[in-house]
Amino acid sequence: MSPEIDTTNSREQPREPGRTADLVEEFWDLQLIEALYRKGLQTSPNDFRDAFHQLFERRGRLLLTGSARHALRIVLAWVAAGSRKRRVLLSSFNCRVVKQAVRAAGLAIDTFDFATPFGQFEWEGVGRSLTDEHLAIVVPHFFGIPTDFAALVPAARRNGVMIIEDCAHTLGASIAGAPAGLLGDAAVFSFNYDKPISLAGGGALLLNRSAIDIDRKVVETPPPSQLELRQFAQMAATLLYGRTRRGRPPLLARIGAKLHVPPYAQPKLPTGIGSLRAAVGIWQLERYEEIRQRRGRNAQILNESLRHLAWHVAATVAPAPLKLRVAVSPADAAFAVQECKQQRITIANSNWPKVIEPDGIGNVWVNAQRAATFGLDVPVHQNLSRTDLDNIASAFVHAKAPDWERLA
Fold first, then answer.
1. Residue 61, H or E segment
2. Do 27-278 and 288-407 fold alike per CATH?
């Protein structure tokens, strides 16, 4: 258990005058972090590991890393060391750091497409694209909405392809009743800015096969708590700056260089899980179910008006919404962005305006391109008021999906 600290900051508070609602907002503040630090840190990374394992039914083996990117590079490098295979299959709609992790492991990239521009995969078809050159496939769970990839598993097993779940956006969601992250051979998690729980850096690698024998002592580099405190303070200051000014550069562009793990190596200043991150992580995990439910209620409210625009949710999954992804016509997108900006609410095409390109000759994946070009991220986080939600819904009240035929 984490130290007893006043949790007022975790309850819904009116937005401060002049403060912009971001796409995702953490549920700690710097006052809490400093209070945990001052009380004396008796918490260890193993305590956080134990608390995190509770979400996964005490299954798998958890390694604490500098980032999800680092976790992905580690597991790919390990499996590549014993194989002649050198290609990894990725969703073309994806974060560039996933591509960087594959390249850092010395591997080449192939890509696959959505079945629709609204995030639906046809996993049997993806399975048919696997070849004897593929070492692994990375299955993404975007925006807190897991994808049910059970139809992919038989093909992956036949071809000896490792399945790695990318759970950077997704914590506490489930697929057919099982926690997302347990169906694949391994899963990676992120604790950076705009993730389900935020620790100003850090990540995790969940290993679901006992044969994946990665040495924890080599992987884990817990930083000193003084450095962790400085990183939390830096993150808090940068986020405050971004949420109280207009006309600023994109938030992730400003904080990325300071907070993200460099793409090809461990950071010189480690962002692993030390005593302070462990204490903050446990504090958040103890309150995460309440936060998850609040985000879910907000998503449900917005889905009443945005459902025809929103990301696909399979009947077999239970999401843990991080934000909503919608696809709208360019004119309707511009109108919604401006209307929400007037109410100091951020909506934006932040994940991700450019698709991942394969190495060598590859297809142009139309649906991934459409999702990237015409998608908007909409906040559903726990700090939004009902007025905020009503303003967001109002901004999209007449919005229509893009006319794909005309835009082709």
1. strand 61-65
2. no
Give residue-wise pLDDT tens across range 150-172.
999 999 999 999 999 999 999 99
The residues, ordered by sequence, that sit 6+ positions from 138 with a Cβ below 8 Å of its Cβ are 72, 88, 89, 90, 91, 94, 98, 102, 164, 165, 166
pLDDT of residue 18: 78
φ and ψ at 140, to 5 degrees? -90, 140
162 strand-pairing partners: 136
Which two structure tokens, joined as six digits, stand for 236? Answer: 């808090």
User: Which of 367, 362, 349, 348 lies closest to 408 in space, CA to CA?
Assistant: 367
Q: Tokens 């309150």 — which residue?
A: 287
Q: Quick count: other Cβ atoms within 10 Å of Cβ 82? A: 7
Domain segments of the chain: what residues? 27-278, 288-407
User: Tokens representing 142?
Assistant: 């975007």
Q: Provide the 10 A C-beta neighbour count for residue 394.
A: 14
Q: Phi, psi at residue 91, to the nearest 5°?
A: -65, 135
Say whether pTM exceeds 0.85. yes
Closest C-alpha among 322, 320, 324 to residue 307: 324
Determine the 3-state secondary structure of 383 from DSSP: coil
Give the position of tokens 């462990």.
278
Q: How far is CA 40 from CA 27, 43, 47, 216, 225, in A?
A: 21, 9, 15, 26, 10
What is the dotted CATH code of the domain comprising 27-278?
A: 3.40.640.10
Task: Give 235-242's long-range contacts (Cβ < 8 A, gap of 24+).
Answer: 235/193, 235/198, 235/200, 235/259, 236/29, 236/30, 236/33, 239/22, 239/26, 239/193, 242/20, 242/22
User: Taking a C-beta distance cutoff of 8 angstroms, is the pair 165, 180 a contact?
Assistant: yes
CA Rg value for the chain = 20
Rounded Cα gap, residues 153 and 160, in angstroms: 10
What the block records as the tokens of 83 is 């194989």
Confidence check: pLDDT of 179 > 50? yes
What is the dotted CATH code of the domain comprising 288-407?
Answer: 3.90.1150.10
Q: What are the angstrom distances between the C-alpha of 331 and each of 61, 205, 348?
A: 48, 41, 14
Task: For the chain, report the end-to-end CA distance as a whole number of angstroms.
Answer: 55
